[in-house]
Design goal:
Elements (H helix, E strand, L loop, with lengths): L17 E4 L14 E5 L26 H8 L3 E6 L33 H8 L5 E6 L5 H7 L2 E4 L19 E6 L2 H11 L26 E5 L9 H16 L3 E5 L4 H19 L18 H12 L2 H14 L5 H24 L2 E5 L14 H6 L5 H6 L3 E9 L2 E9 L4 H16 L1
The structure holds glutamine.
Length: 435
């Protein structure tokens, strides 16, 4: 046995990227030997408090590691801390954290995106080279785009969800975030693969060397990806990136994706329904502060949840509970599943003709704090990221330029199980850009 060196970690965390750090992280031998890695706070870490940025889980120390964390430890990574996020992953800005918002290192008057905003800011701010995020409807790709880093939402099932505290299980995946495509690929190699403890796990390992050859790759660009709400300055930066791939030999084909009209509604009905069911377990008995035993179960359940959950989480539990209630189930949940089927069918049809789809990751650059004060305008900004979650296909965001000093992300979406291909196209872009 080689003795494991320990490193001292002193983050200069001006962005409030970390909810807590590990003062003397352990590391070992392996593919990530000694590399500091940050972990989003909804991923279980044995012995390290895990709160999902919610008051209801304050003080909760998981007795076991998520599978992805086991993989990190096995490959020698140093887990240096837990990153800030929107409470339970519900949000697009990291403003919904019960412990305060993270700032965007590119401009500290603006949000880093969300919900994995802490992980993205930790990388963009130079505190760690790589981090884990989770993506239910864009939560890896949105902060990657807003902070100017790379983030991959893997194919549903390629990375184990065992030990991830669920928000909307049919949509979410853990994925790698880093400053460049090579590091995202390296982290993906470590965390992906079959896990018998996740019943949705795919039996497909990820071992890949990124290939920058883009000649002959067919890239579809759906008109809807540049539709209403997309800032023309963002659109122009993204078109320049797509043109660069064309000059390098890719074939660009414009196409249509009509199901985009239903994607956002299908997503928000599905995720709130799943959230209402998943979050029922937080009752003040099994997790968090103990309930007051002098009160009836009903009273203490209500009180713990009213005080423990933030406004957005309560809103979504109520929306989901309403949509699932008898009499409304067919009108909302069943309809959302039908719309979800259309999104899948649209991708399947498009991927018969093209290898990947390209467009902006987010319709705008990072917002100012408080800019999206009503929930609906916040939800609308997820329009370009939710389709990949509804269909379970892989999608990556890679930085492709700026509007002023604010980063813009290029999103590449691929066929089911073809995560390697979206990584390759992002790599081709990154190499072409730095050439
Ligand atoms: N912004 C989306 C939401 O609020 C996505 C969140 C996520 O991917 N966790 O649900």
């Amino acid at each position: 046995m080689i003795p494991v060196p320990s490193i001292e970690f002193h983050p200069d965390d001006r962005y409030f990227a970390f909810l807590r750090t590990v003062s003397t992280p352990e590391c070992g031998q392996g593919r990530l030997a000694g590399i500091p890695v940050a972990v989003k706070d909804n991923i279980s870490t044995a012995g390290i408090e895990t709160t999902c940025a919610s008051r209801i889980l304050a003080g909760y120390i998981p007795p076991y590691d998520a599978t992805v964390v086991e993989h990190l430890r096995r490959e020698g990574a140093a887990i240096v801390g837990k990153t800030n996020m929107d409470e339970f992953g519900m949000g697009t800005t990291t403003e919904n954290s019960a412990f305060g918002p993270t700032k965007n290192p590119a401009d500290t008057s603006r949000v880093p995106g969300g919900s994995s905003g802490g992980s993205a800011a930790a990388i963009a701010g130079g505190l760690v080279p790589m981090a884990l995020g989770t993506d239910t409807g864009g939560s890896i790709r949105c902060p990657a785009a807003f902070c100017g880093i790379v983030g991959l939402k893997p194919t549903y099932g390629r990375v184990s969800r065992y030990g991830l505290i669920a928000y909307a299980n049919s949509l979410e995946q853990i994925g790698p975030m880093a400053g460049n495509v090579t590091d995202v690929n390296r982290l993906m190699e470590v965390i992906a693969g079959y896990d018998s403890r996740d019943s949705t796990s795919l039996n497909q390992a990820y071992l890949h060397t990124p290939d920058p050859e883009i000649r002959g790759v067919k890239i579809g660009v759906p008109e809807e990806f540049f539709g209403e709400g997309v800032d023309p300055r963002v659109a122009s930066v993204v078109w320049d990136a797509i043109s660069m791939l064309e000059r390098k030999g890719a074939e660009i084909v414009t196409c249509r994706m009509p199901s985009m009209a239903y994607a956002l509604a299908a997503y928000y009905v599905t995720c709130t329904c799943e959230a209402s069911s998943n979050l029922a377990r937080f009752d003040g008995v099994r997790y968090g502060d103990p309930a007051d035993t002098r009160k009836t179960w009903h009273e203490s359940f209500q009180e713990r949840r009213r005080e423990g959950f933030g406004e957005e989480v309560r809103r979504r539990i109520m929306l989901g509970t309403f949509a699932l209630s008898s009499g409304y189930y067919g009108k909302y949940y069943a309809k959302a599943q039908a719309a979800r089927h259309h999104v899948r069918a649209d991708f399947a049809r498009l991927f018969r003709d093209v290898d990947v789809l390209a467009g902006p990751t987010m319709p705008t650059v990072a917002f100012r704090f408080g800019e999206k004060s009503d929930p609906l305008s916040m939800y609308l900004s997820d329009i370009l990221t939710v389709p990949a979650n509804l269909a379970g296909v892989p999608a990556i965001s890679v930085p492709c330029g700026k509007v002023g000093n604010l980063p813009v992300g290029l999103q590449i979406t691929g066929r089911w199980r073809e995560d390697e291909r979206v990584v390759d196209v992002a790599y081709a872009y990154e190499q072409g850009r730095s050439a």
